[in-house]
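Practice record 12: protein with glycine.
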Amino acid sequence: MKNKVMVIGSGGREHALAWRLSLSPTVQQVYVAPGNPGCEQENKVKNIAIAANDYDKLLTFAKDNDIDLVVVGPEQPLCDGLVDLMTQAGIKCFGPSALAAQLEGSKAYSKDFLKKYNIPTARYASFTQVELAIDYLSKQDFPIVIKADGLAAGKGVVIAETKEQGVKTIKDMLAGNAFGEAGHRIVIEEFLVGQEASFIVVVDGKNFVPMATSQDHKARDNGDKGPNTGGMGAYSPAPCVTKEVFDKTVECIIKPTIQGMIDEGTPFVGFLYAGLMIDESNNPKVLEFNVRFGDPETQPIMMRLQSHLDEICLRAINGDLKNTELSWDDRAALGVVLAEQGYPQNYAKGSKINGLDIEIKNVKIFHAGTKKEGKNTVTNGGRVLCVSALGNTLKQAQKLAYLAVDKINWESKYCRTDIGFKAID
Ligand code: AMP
Ligand code: GLY
């Protein structure tokens, strides 16, 4: 019997997941709710016009269409309990429960969890009151990191270089409304230095299997300058995750996290993403947890994954990941995000994108913020596309990705021109 799969979300991550699922011989049909124009170009993939936060409609669709597997892309539906809703209705839905999703949904929760289970992370304290936060800040070294507690689409983190900037950030978040509800509690934490990497594993509650290693570029501009974004490009593998770093991450971070979630009574099922900072002595610390796949890490990682993604997710849901091994394309993959100028703040929408029909071997264009307007595809979000390529080396993947990037244009296209620089130069 072949699987009917539904993917929830509309970004580049969801396009990549839907595409990879569609390539599985055990998949009959992939629906994406609501998807984007790129998803629909794939064989066996169909968009359905249900928003990712219209949970009742998603459930009804899954029931009416005998969906065998639901894969949830973004964090919000996970934190809102979509997996709980689907599971209670007897539908196999891959991702953590709302309680387990707090690992991402609340920075204060995840920091307390890390501390309780002795998992390496930056020193921190949480606050809801301005005076207490400022008092604590005054006794710290700078730079220091201030984070909104709740979900803020990767933008709720401020690195304050000075006390003045720190005080302003505290006031903006706690007293003002800079991040809405998400900012009414904050975490202030020690600034860590080192190399960042994304460590993503699939967890079945008890067992896990690692995804290929990867690295993202969170800052908007070349050389890791400019404001933080959701991610401007990624590649896999990440050379900074050496065997030593990998083993330490598994032993000191992944295993105790999975066990800790069992001990809390909220076992974790889903993609568990530890954002790592690796110091000079190759010791990884957790910068943050995400309870979903990374965007744009998914795009290059899915280009390398050879195992059948539907089987992996179903095994995880069934608690059956033990002895599972994933197979990977040995080549490297690198994805460059094409964004609208001004992202992540204010940006235009609606420009016609040219060059989307290019066909280059080993290149894949994943859509994110795009939409159809008659025959044209136009921009419809901050991150518009992720142009990804495979190569024998990261350098070759980079060269090929940028070759394709140069052929895709619109009026206010913006991208970093140095994706992969840390692993290549
Ligand atoms: P987060 O959403 O917590 O991953 O933070 C977003 C980005 O801010 C990270 O990818 C890091 O680049 C940076 N960051 C977060 N926490 C720290 C920290 N404690 N020290 C240094 N940089 C940090
Ligand atoms: N690429 C970072 C994230 O998905 O949070």
